[in-house]
Amino acid sequence: MNAAINSDAIRDAATAVGAALASFDISDRPLHVFSERHETAMRRILSAAAGRKRRRPFARQLAACLVIVLLLFACAYMIIPSIHATVNGWFTTVWNNIVTYYFPHSGNDHAFPVITPTGIPCQFELESDDNGDGYRTLKYVDKTNDDYIVFDYRWISRKKADKLKQSIEKNGSVSIWLDYKALLNEKTSKTSLEWYEPHNMLGFRAESDLPSEELIQAFSALDWHLPEYGPTWIPEGFELIDEYRDPGCASTTYYDPESGSMISLDYYDYGNTDVFNSYLTDADVIEDTEINGIKATVCYTNSSDPDYDPDSIYNGLVLIWVDDTRKLIFAIDSFSDIETTIRFAESIKAIE
């Protein structure tokens, strides 16, 4: 600090700044007024974001309650007209213009995830990625000394999971990503880790010629997400404004600043999803349609209804379909017309 600036000078300067701030008057300065189109667009986007957050899959701890609910609706399905089935595996109900989607479960109906270790030392390069129906094997190699790391994960049976659990409890374990307990095996020239994820029934194995400490560190972090999907066509004027993903859900949102319209794609792991609601539209119409040959449901507000409010922020539509092969639920929220929304949906492809 400059020796010429003493504490009295600092105190005097602070006092002067405080007096200047206190005397500053903004009362005669007009507040900025946004256009009505901008205000409407922002209300749509904010209401959509809140609705999508609420609609994300419920946790598994609700399963017991949902079993009862599903049984009741299964009985009511035969007699209540408002219950609308689209495919054998799932159905919808309408109550106060909110559409609720129910997804019964049986067996292992999880989507097979994309999992990549992110703690691999930087000198290792991915040499191979072998994947197929319910398995994936990655091999990394350090080309300077031929050290290797192999990471494999796949669906496993309950019997194999129980056997691995017993082995871990009997022989001890080490902690890896998210504090999962892994069985460590050390041999002269090879070290391995084995663990499992009970909710998704996935078994994991890592093998390397590295020392155990380095192998454990390599699997201290994993990137886990659903297979990636995205549209190959978006309406003219729309731009990407938001992306989100976690192990059970992924979403992208597109917005047209000129019209204030929005269209978003969400997709979910079927096995993690029991029920969710279409909070984004006051739906009083539900229609069956198809997306690339897959049965789908679109719900929206009837614009020909005498009580239709053209200025409502809930005049959007929700399009839902289930890919039974990949065990994914796709949902599109849109403030565009049905034709545009369906074209957007049919352009969605897997991203390699």
The average pLDDT is: 82
Terminal-residue CA separation: 58 Å
Unreliable sequence segments: 58-88
Spatial arrangement of strands, main beta sheet: 5-6-7-11-10-9-8
> Which overall shape is indicated by the principal axes computed on the Cα atoms?
extended
Determine the fraction of residues in helical runs and give it as a percent range.
Answer: 10-25%
| Beta strand % | 35-45%
Largest sheet: number of strands, sense, barrel closure: 7 strands, antiparallel
User: What is the total tally of β strands?
Assistant: 22
Task: Provide a count of the helices.
Answer: 6
* Helix and strand run: HHHEEEEEEEHEEEEHEEEEEEEEEEHE
Strand-helix topology:
Blueprint: H1 7-23, H2 36-55, H3 63-76, E1 84-87, E2 90-95, E3 98-102, E4 114-117, E5 125-132, E6 135-142, E7 147-155, H4 158-171, E8 174-175, E9 181-186, E10 191-197, E11 202-208, H5 212-218, E12 222-225, E13 229-231, E14 239-246, E15 249-256, E16 261-269, E17 275-277, E18 285-291, E19 294-300, E20 317-323, E21 328-334, H6 338-346, E22 348-350
Characterise the protein shown here.
This protein has 352 residues and is an alpha+beta fold. It has helices at 7-23, 36-55, 63-76, 158-171, 212-218, 338-346; strands at 84-87, 90-95, 98-102, 114-117, 125-132, 135-142, 147-155, 174-175, 181-186, 191-197, 202-208, 222-225, 229-231, 239-246, 249-256, 261-269, 275-277, 285-291, 294-300, 317-323, 328-334, 348-350. The strands form five sheets. It has a seven-stranded antiparallel sheet with strand order 5-6-7-11-10-9-8, with helices on both faces. A seven-stranded antiparallel sheet has the order 14-15-16-21-20-19-18, with helices on both faces. Strands 1-2-3-17 form a four-stranded antiparallel sheet, with no helix packed on it.
